[in-house]
Amino acid sequence: MNKTNYHIILASNSPRRRELLKGLGLEFEVKVLPDVEEDYPSSLPTSEVAAYIAGKKAEAYKDLLGEDELVITADTIVIVDNTVLGKPSDEAEAQGMLQALSNKTHQVVTGVCLTTRKKQCCFSVSTDVTFKKLSEEEIDYYIANYQPFDKAGAYGIQEWIGYVGVVGIRGSYFNVMGLPVQRIWEEIGKI
């Protein structure tokens, strides 16, 4: 089903985002610019961080777009106790993140920007995820076997830790994987 006349570009190296966007039946290509900064002002409310970073990524592409091109940029963060968790840099940081999520409900927020040369639609989608109390052995096993260093909050809900640790979810499962495809489907036809 053709939802837009634009040639769609996904600005992400994430295999999960490619899989999810492909699931919508849309044709697209992947183009990723190197070294797009993902920093944000420390005064920004945590709920706005993902959309801010997605917008920053979109700005890097805007002048490079042809008249018939639409770029999708996205950023996913995890928020627990009003603290933003991005991607862990090493095993110790991943352990700390998973310990912080253990036995709590946290928010997974994905910010998305749909950008053409003339229009832009930015939004964010939030999903509440609740983990059981994770044992040290479960955390260590997951990190050793799944290397979650490319995932916000140090976990992928579609992986082993999601199977054994997630006891509740309120909102979009696909958003937790990294792309709120239902909302993208709704918004892409409006651009």
Question: Please, could you describe this protein's structure?
Answer:
This protein is of the alpha/beta class. Helices cover 34% and strands 26% of the residues. The chain contains seven helices and seven strands, in the order βαβαββαββααβαα. It has helices spanning 15-23, 49-62, 91-101, 136-146, 160-165, 173-177, 181-188; strands at residues 7-10, 28-30, 69-80, 83-85, 105-115, 120-131, 166-170. Strands 1, 2, 3, 4, 5, 6 and 7 form a seven-stranded mixed beta sheet that branches. β1, α1 (15-23) and β2 form a beta-alpha-beta unit. α3 crosses α4. It is globular.
Identify the notable features of this structure and list them briefly:
191 residues, alpha/beta, seven-stranded mixed β-sheet, globular
Using the CA coordinates, give the radius of gyration.
Answer: 17 Å
Helix content: 25-40%
Tally of strands:
7
Percent of residues in beta strands?
Answer: 25-35%
In DSSP terms (H or I, runs of 4 or more residues), the helix count works out at: 7
User: What letter string, H or E per element, gives the SSE order?
Assistant: EHEHEEHEEHHEHH
Low-confidence stretches: none
For the residues shown, what is the average pLDDT?
A: 95
Structural class: alpha/beta
Distance between the termini: 16 Å
Globular, elongated, flat, extended or rod-shaped: what is the shape? Answer: globular
Largest sheet: 7 strands, mixed
